[in-house]
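Students often ask why we bother encoding 3D structure as a string. The short answer is that it lets us treat folding as translation between two languages. Here is a chain of 114 residues written in the first language.
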Amino acid sequence: MSTVEHQLAGLSGRGMLVVAYAYPSTLVGFAVWNRLIGQHPVARGAPFSLLVPGFGLAAAWVVLDEPIGVPKVLAAVVVLSGLALVLRRGTPAEAGERPTYRLLATARSESRRR
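And here it is in the second language, the structure alphabet:
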């Protein structure tokens, strides 16, 4: 018996439900994510990828009755706070700033002219 077969043989009914849930939800999640990234600027949507561990933590708590301690809650609060700061500030274009790479390119082209 291979290692994978051995591990699957010891899987409970609840564990099988989690495996059956994980595959389609991953496909749907990637489909939605790709559609959003296609419709919105990447700089605006990419910070939301920071929510993935939080949703995984919440799903483990709800589905698997995984204990969540104070350190995990504090870590989630730190991530959410960082996300709120990024989203509050917005992208450089939304803030009326020029992106850094354009500033560097402009500085280089001006120095070459001299």
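Translate back mentally: DSSP finds six helices and no strands in the chain. Keep this in mind for the problem set.
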